[in-house]
């Protein structure tokens, strides 16, 4: 597991590549870092995490291809939680670079990719999908329902898995932000309904990621991925606090 100071070295390298002010990197890296040690002290086992999604999960937009995964793993380790990422794909220069991120994948394709790895029964899945559906204008009226069907499939196949469902990040390049906002609003309602019914699912807002945090109008840059990692960590801590992870 890569220690925190190397993470900041990687972010500094990203600063040089993308021209991101170092002060911004430092600020975003330390956002919302209150300790959750008392809540996580009972987690003594290594938590298996399946990062599931498209090119954002893969890490396009960052020169190291670590996506949000490096910051998430380091943030949890700082709180005493060891994680093991799983998946059939390897991307990023980080040591534990397993994931299930597939560039260009739509919701239905992400669902198909999930079939091959759900047998490993991950304890946590970080699920982010739908960006390509929005870009392709693919059945957008039903897109949130198609994603929640994937969540239901995960629950049926692996009942002990906690699914962290992320909102889509901004999409200014294709002028599709309105569609993104409608997708996120509908999906949030579905996820919160499932959570209220007792399903092991947590809504994770990526609203902190702004247009300025994108490398190319679609994929986050180094700062954007740090913000995403923090959001996923907050979702993880929320799951712990609500008894979904032990």
Structure overview:
The chain is of the alpha/beta class and 246 residues long. 45% of the residues lie in helices and 12% in strands. Helix 9 links the parallel strand 6 (162-166) and strand 7. Helix 6 packs parallel to helix 8 and helix 8 (143-157) runs parallel beside helix 9 (177-196). The protein is globular and about 45 Å long. Mean pLDDT is 87; it is low at 1-38.
Order of helices and strands: HHHEHHEEEHEHHEHEH
The radius of gyration over CA amounts to 17 Å
Oligomer status: single chain
Query: Approximately what portion of the residues adopt beta-strand conformation?
Result: 5-15%
Q: What's the helix and strand layout?
A:
Elements: H1 4-18, H2 22-29, H3 37-40, E1 47-53, H4 55-58, H5 69-78, E2 83-85, E3 89-90, E4 98-101, H6 107-115, E5 124-128, H7 131-136, H8 143-157, E6 162-166, H9 177-196, E7 201-204, H10 222-241
Parallel strand pairs: 1-2, 1-4, 1-5, 5-6, 6-7
Antiparallel strand pairs: 3-4
Helix pairs in contact: 1-2, 2-10, 5-10, 6-8, 8-9
């Amino acid at each position: 597991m890569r220690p925190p100071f190397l993470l900041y070295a990687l972010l500094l390298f990203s600063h040089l590549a993308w021209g991101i002010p170092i002060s911004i990197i430092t600020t975003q890296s330390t956002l919302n870092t209150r300790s959750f040690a008392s809540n996580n002290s009972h987690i003594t086992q290594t938590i298996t995490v399946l990062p599931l999604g498209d090119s954002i999960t893969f890490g396009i937009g960052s020169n190291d291809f670590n996506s949000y995964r490096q910051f998430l793993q380091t943030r949890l380790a700082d709180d005493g939680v060891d994680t093991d990422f799983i998946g059939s794909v390897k991307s990023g220069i980080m040591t534990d670079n397993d994931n299930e991120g597939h560039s260009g994948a739509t919701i239905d394709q992400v669902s198909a990719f999930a079939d091959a790895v759900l047998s490993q029964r991950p304890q946590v899945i970080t699920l982010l999908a739908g960006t390509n559906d929005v870009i392709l204008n693919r059945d957008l009226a039903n897109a949130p329902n198609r994603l929640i069907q994937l969540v239901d499939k995960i629950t049926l196949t692996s009942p002990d898995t906690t699914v962290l469902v992320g909102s889509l990040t901004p999409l200014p390049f294709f002028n599709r932000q309105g569609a993104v906002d409608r997708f996120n609003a509908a999906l949030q309602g579905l996820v919160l309904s499932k959570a209220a019914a007792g399903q092991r699912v947590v809504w994770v807002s990526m609203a902190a990621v702004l247009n300025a945090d994108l490398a190319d109008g679609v994929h986050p840059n180094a700062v954007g991925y740090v913000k995403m990692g923090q959001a996923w960590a907050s979702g993880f801590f929320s799951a712990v606090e609500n008894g979904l992870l032990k």
